[in-house]
Amino acid sequence: KMKNIAVILAGGIGARVGGNVPKQLLPLADGRSVLEHATEAFEQADCIDEVCIVMHPDYIACAEQAQMRNGWQKVKHIIAGGKERWESSVNAIRLYESALSAEEFAHANILLHDAARPFVSQAIIANVCRALEAHEAVTVAIPATDTMYVVGGEDAEQHVSAIPARDTLMRAQTPQAFRLPLIARAYTLALHDPALQATDDCGIVHRYLPMEQISIVHGEESNRKITFKED
Question: How many CA atoms lie within 13 A of 103 on its CB side?
């Protein structure tokens, strides 16, 4: 049986939300933080065996307090994140490269989830785990409902350079999930690229292992990302 490890990426400081507390520590309506809701979703999921929280180094104690407060049984590691999101992913992958035996590593899946998406449903998590039985790379996405523009020119003088067909576009969500050896290999290649730029883990696989198909699990509008204070 494959071991399913969920990694909650909470390494950022959420500058766009404002305030002096990272957005993942802000309370939602029930008083529990964004991070607590995101972690709880994977703690409750039957298909998840283990959880790792990747936290901003200054706030690791806050994550440890949340674990004690909630009595999470699956959270086995709370580690420091990097400056960029991809560095936090790499930190988690490196942890499991050293913590697991070669045999365990070969039979592990990793689900990388943004802490800023606290409303991820049990159905999405279960569908991602199920998709991992047949695919080595899986992402969550929903159809684009707005027309999208490809723009050209400078900021002050931008213009529409293309309007792609909407039915070919989807909006990415998380978790993004992979066989652990696959994502580790993709990041090893990426880290040798001096021009490395990445906004998500699927982008790393798509760019550095282009022959690998990334399967899509349909997401939900409610699995939205908290980016601004209004959210």
Answer: 1
* Helices 180-191 and 85-99: angle between axes, nearest 10 degrees: 120
Query: What does the pLDDT look like over 132-165, one tens digit per residue?
Result: 999 999 999 999 988 999 998 887 788 999 999 9
Which ranges constitute the DSSP H helices of 48-179?
60-70, 85-99, 102-106, 122-131
CB 176 within 8 A of CB 85: no
The shares of helix, strand and coil residues in the chain, as percent rounded to the nearest 5, are 35, 25, 40
Half-sphere exposure of 147 (CA within 13 A, CB side): 5
Q: Residue 140: which H helix or E strand, with range? A: strand 137-143
Residue 194's Cβ-side half-sphere holds a number of Cα atoms within 13 Å equal to 0
152-162 burial, b at 16+ Cβ within 10 Å, e below that, comes to eeeeeeeeeee
- Give the span between the Cα atoms of 196 and 26, in whole angstroms: 31
- Is the pTM above the cut of 0.90? yes
Radius of gyration (C-alpha) of the chain in whole angstroms: 18
Beta bridge partners of 10: 55
- Does residue 21 have a pLDDT over 80? no
Token pair of 65 as six digits: 């307090």
